[in-house]
Amino acid sequence: MASWNSVPLEITYEVFGWISFVSWSVSFYPQVILNFRRKRVIGLNFDFVILNLTKHSSYMIYNICLFFSPVIQKQYFEKYGFGQMIPVAANDVAFSIHAVLLTAITLFQIAIYERGSQKISKIAIGIVSAIWLAAAICFFVALPHHSWLWLINIFNSIQVFMTLIKYIPQAVMNFRRKSTDGFSIGNILLDFLGGCTSYGQMISQSIDQNSWVNFYGNIGKTLLSLVSIFFDLLFMCQHYLLYPNKKAVISCKLNKEGADPLLKSSDHPESENV
């Protein structure tokens, strides 16, 4: 296993990694706190949450296995070279475990708080069911030959796929409502910082090792950062540029009436079509 060539780059790698961990980890709390204060989850897309739970669960499996298993690490070195470094850091493991826990708490809030006519779509349920069925089949395929690196790369591919699609329901919902009310922008700002620093962490390691294996050897982490940044910019654009007045009007109406802030005409389409 390779070692660091530059102490400053190693420190930069660790600093970026833990900034990313703190940003991404804390990013879950604004939405949880917002749900708790409002005692309602209207405005938060439920498909986004259940897809996110599948995404972080698969990412946790990948990180834990590659970081702790000597057998899988050996298979990684045999594939990419013994001069390479494992592309999973301690902060990646800590983040993914924390992410699964907080996403599960958000899902629990959906179950107990007022949600209006919103519900998890059949499409999202079908996607999640198909994903875990495919993962179970892959496990039994890998078992005879102990192809564990191949198996965890399947989980990494799952988290890449889920990262690509998980933001779409919330973005579409915001567009249809012409509002981001009920969806925490604090979550997005912290997620954006986490994506930028995660990408910076990978660049630091690649410069030190004079190799870009770090990027395609852990394509999941690479795409996680890039896709997160793209959608975070989209959500910030929706919140600050496209629908700021709409958000203010809906919030004002909620304060005056103490009722569901969504118009009935926008409630039903989002639950049926998103």
TrEMBL record:
Keywords: Lysosome, Membrane, Repeat, Transmembrane, Transmembrane helix, Transport. The keyword Transmembrane applies. It is found in: Lysosome membrane. It is a multi-pass membrane protein. GO terms for molecular function: L-cystine transmembrane transporter activity. One of its GO terms (cellular component) is lysosomal membrane. The chain crosses the membrane at residues 15-36, 57-73, 93-111, 123-142, 148-168, 180-203, 223-243. It comes from the Eukaryota. This is Cystinosin homolog.
